[in-house]
Specification:
Low-confidence stretches: 1-14
Strand content: 5-15%
CATH superfamily of the largest domain: P-loop containing nucleotide triphosphate hydrolases
Structural class: alpha/beta
CATH class of the largest domain: Alpha Beta
Number of helices: 13
Order of helices and strands: EEEHEEHEHHHHHHEHHHHEH
Shape: globular
Number of strands: 8
Mean pLDDT: 91
Radius of gyration: 20 Å
């Protein structure tokens, strides 16, 4: 295990309250390391995952069962039903309130961050974007349905920096980005820089996990196979049985969409597992690309359950003045 780059401590003017952020790709052991930090430094864990905020999504989100949480309080999980629209702005607002509460009780907030856009919204803030234009959104959705990948090419011409951060198949984000560009008549990336409301009042220590790619892929393959073995398909059946539509956004996410395909007879189980494994490996690669752009991160080359990584991370927190 080696340590690379990044200032160990980011200090805003007037900052006084400590905050630890553990970030990295899916399967890198963020939660395990965050729990270790919280355990040693009397902290509480704050999730930063765009799927774990939904209820009933346990197996496919790798949510830590209550019995394995070491008695440490967990926040920003199980907040809303799967049919509820919950944005990065909602997350930033709610998570900032949680940070203030934890710090106010003299505890250390430890953020476990896998959703890069949510983490950026929390730390850097979001601009006040225009109201949704439903007619425009419907037209854009129709265009994407008729001409797949066209929206990504269009956004690349309008706002290349924003397009580079959105996957070509992520229609909701593409539609919103184009909507913002058109309604405000300027690139979303420019608007974002002009109007952010950064988190202040905290000393933020950001620790990044960068495990070896080959071993990460092996772990992800085992984890996906394990999710299906533990009943991911039945978890989706249970969500549908509660009356939620197959169209709800969480069921279009990795693992869940493949499980849904099994239920609907569009995939065999082995096909679904292989497809979910491939998509998750690709997603982990995109996560690392995103997180490598994050400033002031101290990168640890290993997994969060590696004793050497844990020791180094705890030393970082200790020397940061927490």
């Amino acid at each position: 295990m080696t340590l690379s780059s990044g200032a160990a401590l980011t200090t805003n003017s007037g900052a006084s309250r400590p905050l630890v952020v553990v970030l990295g790709p899916t399967g890198s052991g963020k939660t395990d390391l965050a729990l270790s930090v919280a355990e040693v430094f009397d902290g509480e864990l704050v999730g930063c995952d765009s799927l774990q905020i939904y209820r009933y999504l346990d197996i496919g989100t790798a949510r830590t069962p209550p019995a394995e949480r070491r008695g440490i309080a967990h926040h920003m999980m199980d907040l809303v039903d799967p049919d509820r629209l919950y944005t990065a702005g909602d997350y930033a607002r709610d998570a900032r309130a949680v940070l203030a509460d934890i710090s106010g009780r003299g505890k250390l907030p430890v953020v476990a961050g896998g959703t890069g856009f949510y983490l950026r919204a929390l730390l850097e803030g979001l601009f006040a974007g225009p109201q949704r234009d439903e007619a425009l959104r419907e037209r854009l959705a129709a265009i994407e349905k008729a001409r797949p990948s066209f929206l990504h090419r269009l956004l690349r011409r309008m706002d290349k920096p924003t397009a580079s951060r959105i996957h070509p198949n992520d229609s909701p984000k593409l539609i919103r980005a184009i909507e913002v560009c058109l309604l405000r008549r300027k690139p979303m990336s420019t608007q974002f820089e002009e109007g952010r409301n950064r988190l202040t009042g905290y000393r933020a220590l950001k620790i990044g996990l960068a495990p070896p790619r080959a071993e990460l892929c092996r772990r992800l393959d085992r984890r996906l196979a394990g999710m299906f073995a533990r009943g991911l398909v039945d978890e989706v059946r249970g969500i549908l049985a509660q009356g939620f539509s197959r169209e709800v956004k969480p069921l279009a996410s990795l693992g869940y969409k493949e499980a849904l395909a099994v239920i609907e007879g569009r995939m065999q189980m082995d096909e679904a597992i292989a497809a979910a494994q491939l998509a998750t490996r690709q997603y982990a690669k995109r996560q690392m690309t995103w997180f490598r752009r994050e400033q002031d991160v101290t990168w640890l080359e290993g997994f969060g359950d590696d004793p050497a990584v844990r020791t180094t991370a705890l030393d970082l927190v200790r020397h940061s003045g927490t």
